[in-house]
Amino acid sequence: MMAAAGSAAVSGAGTPVAGPAGRDLFAEGLLEFLRPAVQQLDSHVHAVRESQVELREQIDNLATELCRINEDQKVALDLDPYVKKLLNARRRVVLVNNILQNAQERLRRLNHSVAKETARRRAMLDSGVYPPGSPSK
């Protein structure tokens, strides 16, 4: 729990922890709380990207097959509009896949930065060294 001023936290034993240690304890708890959701989101994004790659391949195969059928037909069937629709759908799948890939990369970088910052703060707490301008122990 955070105090009104935002500078104190409560340890697991219910003892108030003030200053940088309290903020770090809160940040670490928040990180541990969010980590499963971030990992689940990442795995879902990965699964969606894989299914979109498969969908794109299927669209490509279908478009190729439609073109082949169109060329082999003795009776003139106009399959071009359907091929164009398939190619448009493929373009949209690729666009969504790129958006998901960028979001997943940002999520990975954010997760890495948070872990790095948490490790840095933990090392500072363990060594008793605080950055300039922060209250001492």
From TrEMBL:
Coiled coil: 86-120
MF (Gene Ontology): SNARE binding
GO cellular component: BLOC-1 complex; BORC complex; synaptic vesicle
Pfam family, one: Snapin_Pallidin
UniProt-listed GO biological process terms: endosome to lysosome transport; intracellular protein transport; lysosome localization; lysosome organization; regulation of synaptic vesicle exocytosis; synaptic vesicle exocytosis
InterPro entries: Snapin (IPR017246), Snapin/Pallidin/Snn1 (IPR028119)
Keyword Iron-sulfur in annotation: no
Entry keywords, A to Z: Coiled coil
The keyword Transferase appears for this protein: no
Source domain of life: Eukaryota
Family annotation (PANTHER family): SNARE-ASSOCIATED PROTEIN SNAPIN (PTHR31305:SF2)
Family statement: Belongs to the SNAPIN family.
Name of the protein in question: Biogenesis of lysosome-related organelles complex 1 subunit 7
Organism, as annotated: Odobenus rosmarus divergens (Pacific walrus)
Gene it is expressed from: SNAPIN
